[in-house]
Amino acid sequence: MTMHLKRVLPPDFPALQRFYKQAGYKGKASTRDENWVLVDDNEVICAAARIVLQANERILRGVWVTADVQHQGIGSALLRQLSDGGHLAQCYTFPYQHLVSFYQRAGFAEVAATPHLMPLLQRYNRDGQKVALMRYMGS
User: Fold this and answer.
1) How many Å apart are CA 45 and CA 116, to the nearest integer?
2) pLDDT tens digits for the chain (139 residues)?
3) What span, in angstroms and rounded, lies between the C-alpha atoms of 107 and 81?
4) Which terms in the Gene Ontology molecular function aspect does this entry carry (predicted)?
5) Which residues make Cβ contacts (< 8 Å) with residue 91, sequence separation at least 6?
6) CA nearest to 29, candidates 44, 42, 14
7) Into how many domains does the chain fold?
8) Domain that holds residue 69
């Protein structure tokens, strides 16, 4: 199966929202964000990533993969294509602790929280989510 990266524009937000709901993600597609998907030859979404501007930084909010193709390298392929296109430059992410090695393989490294990102990190961890702070360093 061949997959390609596609930026999701407003006319395709309903399809992305359906994908998010299916993946259990409660976020919403917004024109303020960069919404990216990996689609197959039939333009079916297999994976999605959302990059938001928060605390004056670009933050990769997450990567979601369709349940029936998880653990097949689809999430890694999405991050690789985003990297190849320069879309992860200057990007942070707050992965759950069990996903740190996944993001490390994609070129992210754990970093100390900057003063403007510290409140976000503290909020996530205070809510019991146990996340790390990582920044894209290149693959």
Assistant:
1) 34
2) 688 999 999 999 999 999 999 988 888 889 999 999 999 999 999 999 999 998 889 999 989 998 888 888 999 999 999 999 999 999 999 999 999 999 999 999 999 988 889 888 888 888 677 899 999 998 6
3) 12
4) acyltransferase activity, transferring groups other than amino-acyl groups
5) 51, 58, 59, 60, 135, 136
6) 14
7) 1
8) 4-136
